[in-house]
Amino acid sequence: MYWVAGFASSRSFVVDLGRNQSPSFGLCGSDERRLFYGYIVAFPVQDFGGIMSGLVSDSWWRKTLYITGGALLAAAAYLLHELLSIRKEQELDSKDAIILHQFSRPKNGVPSLSPLCLEMETYLRMLDLPYQSYFDGSLSSQGKMPWMEYNYEQVCGTELIFDFLEEKLGMSLNKGLSAQEQAVVRAVTSMVEEHLYWSISYCQWVDNVHETQRMLDLPGPLSDLLKWILCHLTGGIVKREMYCHGIGCFTKEEVYTLLEKDMRTLATLLGDKKYIMGAQLSSVDATVFGHLAQAMWTLPGTRPEQLIKGELINLAMYCERIRRKFWPEWFVDLEDFCYDSDTESSSTETPSCPLNLRLFSRTDTLEESDLSLASHTRTHSEDSEHSGHTLSDSDIELDGSDEEQQVKG
């Protein structure tokens, strides 16, 4: 039997057992020599169930090597992360440049599955402001997305970003509106962002999560597993935040009833006008488009798609009007604009390669894209016929014909 001897004391010390020297102890290697009191204790090794004897076995050395190797790998990963972070900070120079942080692009051609990200990017395009998108996944200091950097200042929240652009750059879509019209813009924006947003998110990440998972674009051999984990984590977050908001306390049918009321309110408010506030663009158009685009192109077979492509067809024409004017590289097949309950939503064709939408300035592509879109519309209307509710050519080409009508007038 092996025995281990030790010394027990009530205070911390370091024992110096040198030859022909009296013991000394002290914190931080003190040379001051003092007497100490304690107990000499001895205990058998085998009483600890083989734990102590295992420390001197060969398996303990292998475990030590594994732990040490894991620690070294973790340290290397941490250092690599820090180096990449430093490199990214050096690259993200926001000196007189708008940097928009948002979620990564999906693979179905839609710029974003987030209504707020699509709203913010569309607003920048409506203002014709050059910007650069970063899909690094980093949230703002408030834990939100999207957020913007400009001249090393960070702004989070769509409404606060709108105010920041107006204050710093003097750019706003609401300058020509009266005080009453601006009040309407704020009221509709609040309804969409604080009410319709949650029902759309519920339909995306809870009730239609499998279709949303299919749209995500994550590279790597474990992409399917990562997408499944991401979707279910996001769904749990959405349900928790909906409950905190209050709308999560309702049943599924009640949530869809509220969603339908919001969409019908927007359809009534729009009517046969070109934009929400009439002939002039405003910030509320970016907000409404960012949310309705999800119902148009990311929720196949759901009740929001049935509404917007069927009974509320004026909202579909409104979304297509904005898409054609400010997203010319975003191709959509017009066959998908008429909802047919007999056809399967999975037959929708998607582009084979993702779009490169990182850096954009509408002044570089607008004139050329308008011509190509107009010719595509004419050829499509001649070759195909649709039954039921469709998007007529006159409705889609309103943007391209406005200037000609003004000149003729």
TrEMBL record:
Region (Disordered): 370-409
Source species of the chain: Danionella cerebrum
Domain of life per record: Eukaryota
Protein name per UniProt: Failed axon connections homolog
Pfam family, any one: GST_N_4
Every Metaxin glutathione S-transferase domain range: 260-322
Lineage: Eukaryota, Metazoa, Chordata, Craniata, Vertebrata
Domain Failed axon connections homolog N-terminal: 1-104
Residue span(s) of domain Thioredoxin-like fold: 115-208
Sequence ranges of Basic and acidic residues compositional bias: 379-388
GO cellular component: cytoplasm
Ranges of biased composition (kind: Acidic residues): 394-409
Similarity section: Belongs to the FAX family.
